[in-house]
Every structure is written in C-alpha cells, then in structure tokens.
Write a structure and sequence with these properties.
Layout (H helix, E strand, L loop, with lengths): L4 E8 L2 E6 L12 E2 L2 E3 L6 H13 L8 E7 L2 E8 L15 E5 L1 H6 L5 H14 L1
Parallel strand pairs: 1-6
Antiparallel strand pairs: 1-2, 1-4, 2-3, 2-7, 5-6
Length: 130
C-alpha cells in the first residue's frame, strides 16, 4: 500500500474542525484552513496515519468506526470522520497551527483560505452523501 500521508475532514456534529495553518514560508498553504493529518510514519496503514495525526494535531482519539468515508487521491488518503458535537470540549491544539475553529462545510467550500484540493475532496464526499 503506497501512500505518503492522510488527512481527515472531522465533523463534530454538523460542523468541520479546521486548523489555521502556521504562517511560515516553508510550508504549503501558510495561513490557510487545513484538516488534521500529515505524513506517513514507517509501517503505518492509511487509517493508522490519519488516527495518529488527529491525536497529535487536535487531541482527539478517533476510532476506525468514526470513519464514514475514505478515498485515495494519488499518494494521499482523505478520510471523513464524524463525532458528536460535544466532543468540541476535548479539542486541544497540538504544536502545529495558529488555532482551530468549527466551520460549516459550505462555508469551508467557499472560503478563500480553504486549501483548494481539500475543497475538491470534501465536495466529492458531500456529493456522494447526497
């Protein structure tokens, strides 16, 4: 299974948990709204990567049963997970990002700070959801 990383669009209730990326010139899309995720560690499956990165970046321990959709895009996996809205009190930003917020999916899709390829991936999920 060849891949380089994984991202998770994490719904807490009806809203997405998004991370405002650091404002650094050496990272892609500085100052943009991102989803939890990142690079694969050796031996990890795509879902293991996504779950680990979510804990590291926002402090939430997801289980595989929280994952409701997944798709591989080139060398990266994109997951969608759903948790109850009350899990918002468990969110703790890790050492990456300027902050986090909740955002309605349609607001993310229209936001100029949304990462363009995540807009496409989120639209894919929402289209399949109907």
């Amino acid at each position: 299974m060849d891949f380089t990383g994984a991202k998770t669009a994490l719904f807490l209730g009806d809203e997405l948990l998004v991370i405002l990326r650091d404002q650094k010139d050496d990272i892609p899309f500085p100052g943009h709204f991102d989803f939890p995720g990142g690079g694969r560690e050796e031996g990890e499956s795509p879902i293991e990567c996504a779950l680990r990165e979510t804990v590291e970046e926002v402090g939430l321990n997801l289980s595989e049963t929280d994952i409701v959709w997944s798709r591989q895009y080139d060398q990266n996996w994109f997951f969608v997970a759903r948790r109850p809205a009350q899990d918002v009190h468990l969110v703790q930003l890790g050492d990456e990002g300027q902050g986090w917020c909740l955002m309605h999916p349609q607001d993310y899709l229209a936001d100029p700070l949304a990462i363009p390829y995540f807009v496409v991936r989120l639209k894919d999920y929402l289209t399949e959801l109907g």
